[in-house]
Amino acid sequence: MSSQIEDQCKDSYLQLEIARRGELDVTKWLAWFLGCLGRAIDSSDDLLAPVLNKARICR
Question: What top-level branch of life does the organism fall under (predicted)?
Answer without folding.
Answer: Bacteria
